[in-house]
Amino acid sequence: MSVFSTFDGAQAYLLGTIGETLSRRTSYKLDRIRALLHELGDPHLRYPTVHVGGTSGKGSTCTMIAAIAQASGRRTGLHTKPHLHSMTERARVDGIPVSRERFAELLGAMMPAIDRVTATLGRPTYYETLLALAFVHFAAERVGVAVIEVGLGGRLDGTNVVQAEVSAITSVGYDHTDVLGDTLEAIAREKGGIARAGVPLVVGAVPDAAERILRECARTAGAPFVRVADVVSIEAASPRPPFVQAVIATTPSARYEIALPVHGLFQIANAATAIAAIERLPDALRPDARSVERGFARVAIPGRMEVFAGAPPCVLDIAHNEEKASSLVASLRTEFRNRRMHYVVAVGESKDARQILATLSGLPASFTFTGFDVVGRHAIEPSRLVALAASMGIAARAIREPRDALDDVRRAADRDDVVVVTGSTFVVATLREALLREMDDAAESSA
Q1: Which of 5, 102, 145, 285 could in theory staple to 281 by disulfide, Cβ–Cβ 3.0 to 4.6 A?
Q2: What is the per-residue pLDDT across 343-377, written as a single tens digit (0 to 9) for each?
Q3: CA nearest to 277, candidates 212, 245, 213, 231
Q4: Under a CB-based contact definition with an 8 Å cutoff, are residues 68 and 281 in contact?
Q5: Which residues have CB under 8 Å from 77's CB, separation 6+?
Q6: What is the tens place of the pLDDT at every residue in 158-213?
Q7: How far apart are CA 236 and CA 240, in angstroms?
Q8: Cα–Cα distance between 54 and 171 in angstroms, integer?
Q9: Please, which pLDDT band fits residue 30 given cuts at 50, 70 and 90?
Q10: What are phi and psi for residue 87, nearest 5 degrees?
């Protein structure tokens, strides 16, 4: 019988590891994740991988690449972080999260290896354990390819043990500056640490200073450097079907007619990066053009410019750094032209709230600050955000409970306005669950 008889028991163990990052017995390198994976039989080396990093866009790009691989008929593993609603989302095969029962079984089977590593290198962290579980699950499910999102930075991130067929960096901006450095050059150097000899490094639109560093990282590692703008051109398709972003993407080897059923201008840039990456896979793994088009048509990315219809409509978008906030504002400006925004915002304690607020205030909007209640994670107190906003000349108010904040804003907004839930992943997840329950209740009452 498994050490964990239920998912709740497995989840409780993992939540108890949050905050464990540095053991006195080891330096903060990749030693521990390598040791853990070796004890588990090196599951991450049993299938080809695509490795994707970046400040913003990496999760969406991973999701697109995985959808394309699946559309080509290949059994596909996908690891992204953070999850929205359940830890099980960290290990998906063909788009389906590992079941709660299987999650508990896998973690239970891993515990002897975890104990052996703990004795010499300290207990594996929450992130390391979840990552290892995903690798084990993919191996057990015999995936034909796995798409792996970098967690933080790249050079010292736990995912940087994979032997990728292609690597990609979607963007470089300011986030996690306490760990990665406070200049674009320093951040780019950390992200460029995923470059490997002979493995194409695909790079999206990044600032010039960051591109110079990434080119240097690629040259030093012996990785072919591929600039997305040099190999993929995008033009709008006409006429535009409803509820999709329709574009034509052209590369030196193919032409793709893409109907992308997700909102947000930034998703077009992510799609271009995904195309550049999949075209650099080995011949045996490379999907054909029709598979690429089918894959994009099936993409679903909860919590990224996700629109819940209504009067007013409600948009959910995770924007926990300046770059993501800029992308959100650009998309709102385009898709909801000349409409007033009403933000419901929570910001994690480690984030640069000033830059996020300064960016969001680029649109006519009201601000309501709220919080979230998640084990091991802390929000900036809403009252502190109100004070910060006031110092920036932004009028705002605080409503501590997220659902109360959303309900109040929706009541106050005009029918033609737009309610936007943004900031932390955790507030988006909390209010997304509330909106989904609301939809289910409405469907039941009308049945």
Answers
A1: 285
A2: 999 999 888 899 999 999 999 999 999 999 887 77
A3: 231
A4: no
A5: 47, 66, 91, 92, 93, 134, 137, 138, 141, 143, 145, 146, 147
A6: 999 999 999 999 999 887 666 777 799 999 999 999 999 999 999 999 999 999 99
A7: 8
A8: 5
A9: very high
A10: -55, -25
Integer angstrom CA distances of residue 89 from 85, 93, 320, 374: 8, 10, 20, 17
175, 55 Cβ separation under 8 angstroms: yes
Q: What is the C-alpha separation between 403 and 220, in angstroms, rounded?
A: 50
- Are 432 and 354 contacting, i.e. CB atoms less than 8 angstroms apart? no
> What are the pLDDT digits (tens) for 254-278?
999 999 999 888 899 999 999 999 9
- CATH architecture of the domain with residue range 7-297: 3-Layer(aba) Sandwich (3.40)
CA dihedral 205, 177, 134, 126 (to 10 degrees): -170
Q: For residue 207, what are its two tokens?
A: 């600032």
Determine the pLDDT at residue 24: 45
The β-bridge partners of 250 are 233, 255
Would you kindly state where each structural domain of the chain is located, as residue ranges? Answer: 7-297, 306-446
- Write out 264-279 in H/E/C secondary structure: CCHHHHHHHHHHHHHC
How many alpha carbons lie under 13 Å from residue 126 in its C-beta half-sphere? Answer: 18
pTM: 0.90
Give the residue among 343, 322, 316 at the shortest CA–CA distance from 412: 343
Specify the pLDDT at position 227: 97
- Digit-coded pLDDT (tens) for 66-76: 999 999 999 99
d(Cα 187, Cα 306) in Å, to the nearest integer? 29
What distance in Å separates the CA atoms of residue 187 and residue 284, rounded to the nearest whole number? 34
For residue 410, how many other CB atoms are within 10 A of its CB? 16
